Amino acid sequence: MAGLLEIHNLSKSFDATKVINDFSLEVVEGTLCCLVGPNGAGKTTTLDLITGRIKPTSGKIIFAGEDITAKHEHVIARAGIGRKFQVPAVLRDLTVRQNLEVSYSRQTNPFWNLFKFRNAGLKEKLDEIATLAGLKDRLGERAGILSHGETQWLEIGMVLMQEPRLLLMDEPIAGMTEGEIEKTARIFKDLRKTATLIVVEHDMGFVREIADVVTVMHMGSLLAQGTIKQVESDPRVRDVYLGEQEAA
Amino acid sequence: MGNIYHNKTAQWIVYAVFFAILAVIPIKIDDSFLLNQLATYGVYGMLALSISLCWGFGGILNLGQGIAFGLGAYGMAMTMQMQSQDASNPIPPFMLNNSLDHLPLLWQPFQNTTAGLILSVAVPTLFCAVFGGIMFRARVSGPFFAIMTLAMLSAFYTIIIDRQPYTGGVNGLTPPSAFQFAGVEVDPYSPTAYWVVFCFLMGATVVAKLITQSSFGLVTQAIRDDAERVRFLGYSVAGYETVIYTVAGLIAAIAGCCWVMLVQYVSPAQLDVSFSLSMVIWAAIGGRHSLLGSIFGAFIIQGAQSYLGDTFLATWLLILGGFFIIVVRFLPNGLASLLESGLGLLAAKRRSSSAAVERNGDANPMPAE
Known about the structure:
Chain A contains ten helices and ten strands. Helices cover about 40% and strands about 25% of the residues of chain A. The longest helix of chain A has 14 residues, at about 150-160. The radius of gyration of chain A is 18 Å and the shape is globular. In chain A, helix 3 packs parallel to helix 6. By secondary structure, chain A is α/β, with parallel strands linked by helices. Chain A has a single domain (about 5-245), classed as Rossmann fold (3-Layer(aba) Sandwich). By secondary structure, chain B is mainly alpha-helical. Chain B has one domain (about 5-360). In chain B, about 75% of the residues lie in helices and about 0% in strands. Chain B is built from 15 helices and two strands. In chain B, helix 3 packs across helix 10, helix 5 (about 115-135) runs antiparallel to helix 10 and helix 9 (about 215-230) crosses helix 10. The radius of gyration of chain B is 24 Å and the shape is globular. In chain B, about 45% of the residues are buried. The chains are: A alpha/beta, B mainly alpha. Chain B: InterPro entries: ABC_transp_permease (IPR001851), ABC_transptr_urea_perm_UrtC (IPR017778), LivM-like (IPR043428). Chain B: Its main location: membrane. Chain B: It comes from Hansschlegelia plantiphila. Chain B: One of its GO terms (cellular component) is plasma membrane.
């Protein structure tokens, strides 16, 4: 199977600092790839580059055969990439229902949306996602008053409402309880049937549970890639990342 | 049972009642001077409505709404001026005073009333689309956009004063006779003029309300909340901002046309910074998140200015300023939020009392067991 997302020799410098240095990655459709690495390794920056939030200094990003390098955020999102942010970003002044509704972004043209008052298929989808995210009873609440865990779920729900082909999840389980983490793992594994995922996570237990492929980044470059077993037994990985975690 | 303030049906009923009251006015009042004055309030209401749409719902603070209003007003004044000219006397007197010996190209389309009306509305709207498009694509937002609109407004103001032979300069334009449309003269002091304004105000309000309830309205509210996040949902933020800014500009342009129809006069004062600021103050005091609240804000502030302004003279501005500070400090979302929280409290009270009834209802079967 060809890679749904291909990153070729990506580099990004801020002034003289190279944050991403000749990084390449291929993510196969229908798999779950975990992106791990110590703080400052460039994981979130990589997601920023994929989603167009920042533009790369050099290199190429191909999504589903299409070059999306340095395209606008909304163009990339429309191509089928959804993202959950590290610091959960929901629309705090809107209700939970409105957050989910606006994420169901099948029609993005402002002129068409002027004349659109009912959204076909929205209700079923919203029910499904709200149930999945455990927010069924909270639909009328303002998103700003949700707890941290609920906010995480809402944002995951928003990404799911988008029905993207590729989901980028930046630290999705931060602030979740054990039970919620288990549920998240189950949902992510389910999602693989219809979508592809890249998950940035520090919790190695969670990574072990869900990852098909683990990619280790260090200093903006690819350090190692493979199954969780291969990566864990790699001495370089133990050196820069896992060893450090065990010591902590 | 939620807060009835957020109930769409209830909102439409309030709108209907509001416009029904406005419709009764010309039947009950035969003071033509008063009727004319109330009609100008309708124009101010339209302006407050456009600010509410742009700022309250779109999150775009626009301190230069006078551009669209002023351009519309000038277009209308030019149209009305040319209605008083004829083949024997094709050049408006002020041009002759400025030693122009032929009608400038800029004025020629206004010889035709229909073309003049179309231009009066189309030029400001197009301006908003282009200016907004450029600004929003460059991601100019928040206070920076407000400053840009202010700068643009001052530029127009200066140009109009400076180009006296074409614009009448500081004196502005004073078309000598009332607006004529399809052979009918619209006397500014007649109920007809009131009805014209009423229809446009109601039309604009209904359209604006529908916009806020459409999918488009939801997206603009999301953008107001966090524009950055909305981009990652696939929406072109610049596109949405441009459309809402342009629709607001269109409403303000129509208001400009209506205003000149009512007062037969336009001057650079309509593009003065202080006038554009008062539009923002109307919306802020009435409640920018509520279309009707903003219109109401314009009514009470302008009404108070007309009646109390004469009594208090210069102190009036101090009173207005003080009132504004109080509202911003204690009611940041304007008078409409007073109603919202009041109805919210009511709903909460009802909820807790009905919950108490349910608890009692649950408790009752217990002893029977």
